[in-house]
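We emphasize that the prediction below concerns an isolated chain of 167 residues; any contacts that depend on oligomerization or on bound cofactors are therefore not represented. The input was used exactly as deposited, without trimming of termini.
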Amino acid sequence: MTKDIRQKQSKALCWIVSLLNQHQISFLICGGLAAIGYGSNRKLNDIDLFVTSNHFNKVVSLGDEYISKPAQRYCEATEGWDLEYVQFVYHDIKIEIGNSEGAKIFDSSTHAWTPLKLDFSLIEYKTILGIEIPLMDRKARIDYKKKLRRPVDLQDIEAMAKLSPQT
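Result of the prediction step, given as a token string:
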């Protein structure tokens, strides 16, 4: 990763975390950033996070000048996601913020959509890109990764297992 991209990612993360903290909005980081926090060495494509449904619309309005994909429900079957989210682009970095209410993932073993259960009280703080952030709970992350079973999910599970053999 080039220094320029890493700086842009850091600025984007700092912007969204500062915005959420300033407005006392609870959030949890998932996706590639959480994977990195739990030991993966994979490339960071974007910044993914969830907020609770009672804060989702406020977050959308707070970042409205950076919206690149409007807030609505998206069913991205190839990725295994069915949820409401908004996408911002800040310093060329995509930030995708999901509404925790009604979020679903595709369970590859049952071939059915299943609710994604997010517990905002079960988080682990890690410093990534120089910023302390709340990561989605390790166990919950492994559980949903095992359901999705995309190549990137299997890679993330393996990386987490190397750091913590009990997972």
